[in-house]
């Protein structure tokens, strides 16, 4: 059996203007496998074609893990899983370019690339079990400039550095304080709160909402960078992705032991 065959994406039409997009990978803590990400991308494309103004995105409520991030089994064969053309980056671009509003509905802990998935959504509704941890440094993976910019626009710089340097969890109370979470509610009213927010948005002029979203996306992307700086960043990431430390990080994760990094 295909090891990722348990990964599914389900589209539930809550009303003619609102869709609930539910992803699931239960045997791997809702990890973002390539199959699951492809299904998410296809579902977002289909909903955009149907001109659905609001999409509520998330795993099922009440699980301890919203998503564990990248499927580590697949990283054994991919030295740079967050490069421009990779499945996660394609989904993030689809969310940011979606011609309507995408609301992240978060219950449980969010790890690694799944945090970027949440950050790419337009709004976040979370319950008190939510937390966010950026864990690439645990396996020696350098994050991308585009990914860092998404955090740069949304977090104070010292909090951003804490998140990426330590891989410690950012609890949902701090996340709300920094404006990452729009609504923080109890689990039993989480879906109702997201739906109420979605209904309010869906009642507005969809072309106006889409136009404002696209303007904001363009403004966020206005980050001029000298060619030399781009080349320097690319070389730093290439060295880290090709390093022995990255291999050690993946091996340590698979063997459930602390990684021993050498800086090589």
TrEMBL record:
It comes from the Bacteria. InterPro entries: ClpP/crotonase-like_dom_sf, Enoyl-CoA_hyd/isom_CS, Enoyl-CoA_hydra/iso, Enoyl-CoA_hydra_C, Enoyl-CoA_Hydratase/Isomerase. Pfam families: ECH_1. NCBIfam families: PRK11423.1 (NF008506). Belongs to the enoyl-CoA hydratase/isomerase family. This is Methylmalonyl-CoA decarboxylase. It comes from Pseudomonas hygromyciniae.
């Amino acid at each position: 059996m295909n090891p990722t065959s348990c990964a599914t994406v389900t589209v539930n039409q809550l009303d003619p203007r609102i869709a609930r997009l539910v992803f699931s990978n239960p045997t791997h803590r809702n990890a973002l496998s390539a199959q699951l990400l492809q299904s998410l991308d296809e579902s977002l494309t289909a909903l955009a074609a149907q001109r659905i103004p609001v999409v509520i995105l998330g795993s099922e409520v009440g699980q301890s893990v919203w998503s564990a991030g990248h499927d580590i089994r697949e990283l054994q064969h991919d030295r740079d899983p967050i490069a421009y053309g990779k499945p996660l980056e394609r989904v993030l671009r689809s969310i940011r370019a979606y011609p309507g509003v995408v609301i992240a509905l978060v219950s449980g802990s969010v790890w690694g690339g799944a945090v970027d998935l949440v950050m790419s959504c337009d709004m976040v509704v979370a319950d008190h079990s939510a937390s966010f941890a950026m864990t690439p440094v645990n396996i020696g993976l350098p994050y991308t400039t585009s990914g860092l910019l998404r955090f740069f626009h949304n977090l104070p710089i010292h909090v951003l550095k804490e998140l990426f340097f330590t891989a410690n969890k950012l609890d949902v109370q701090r996340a709300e304080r920094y404006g990452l979470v729009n609504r923080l509610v109890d689990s039993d009213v989480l879906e109702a709160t997201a739906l109420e927010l979605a209904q309010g948005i869906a009642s507005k002029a969809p072309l106006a909402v889409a136009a404002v979203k696209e303007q904001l996306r363009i403004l966020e992307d206005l980050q001029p960078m000298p060619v030399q700086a781009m080349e320097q960043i690319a070389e730093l990431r290439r060295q880290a992705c090709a390093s022995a430390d990255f291999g050690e990080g993946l091996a340590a994760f698979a063997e459930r032991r602390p990684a021993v990094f050498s800086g090589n």
